[in-house]
Amino acid sequence: METEKMNQQPASPAGQPPVDRPPLTPLPVEQTPAEKLASDAYAHTTEAAGALRRGEIMQNSEIDPLADSDDRLIALLSYATQIVIPVVMPIIVLLSESSKKRPFQRYHAIQSLALVALFWGLIVLTAMVTTVMQIVPFIGFMVGLMMACMVPLAWFAQAMMLLYYGFQSYKGRRFAVPGLTSFLRDQGWL
């Protein structure tokens, strides 16, 4: 009986039929640039996690017919030199006058630079968390030991990924790194 009363529309004054009101919709709130950047990063991270779960480390691979042998070599070096001397080669490519005329070189220089920035950001974040965990006596020691074992493996995985991407760019492919490339496009960097 009480549920029937709750489901009924409120009575209108003077016996008029009930008025259907549209549901209230929230007013659109404009995001600040930092909030937009954070929400974009979250969306692209989710996309990248899904792609990596499926085993994809490269998406939308297509051969660029305009890339000549010099373009492909510079793209390869943009990735491969990141293993030994980070950041130098992509910066040289981006600062050179020829990169404005060579979109293939510019694309891969920006992408390799962003990839290394992502790797270094993860390393710094991991180091900070490990340092904070050192406060707790036994757990801190175990976390430090685990990180000491995982850092060489992470560096090796990074090196293999950079070599793989370099090899693909040397074959003349223009590809997307899951999550990262779409983020770079959304920011207007690619």
List its salient traits:
65% helix, mainly alpha, two-stranded antiparallel ribbon, flat, 190 residues
How would you sum up this structure, described in words?
With 190 residues, the chain is mostly helical. Helix content is 65%, strand content 5%. The chain has eight helices and two strands, in the order H-H-E-H-H-H-H-H-E-H. The protein has a two-stranded antiparallel ribbon with strand order 1-2. The termini are far apart. 21% of the residues are buried.
Low-pLDDT stretches: none
Distance between the termini: 64 Å
Strand content: under 5%
Radius of gyration from the CA trace? 26 Å
Q: What order do the strands of the largest sheet run in, or round the barrel if closed?
A: 1-2
How are the SSEs ordered, and which strands pair?
Blueprint: H1 2-7, H2 33-53, E1 59-63, H3 69-80, H4 88-95, H5 98-101, H6 103-133, H7 137-170, E2 173-176, H8 180-186
Antiparallel strand pairs: 1-2
Helix pairs in contact: 2-8, 3-6, 3-7, 4-6, 6-7
Brief summary:
Helix content is 65%, strand content 5%.
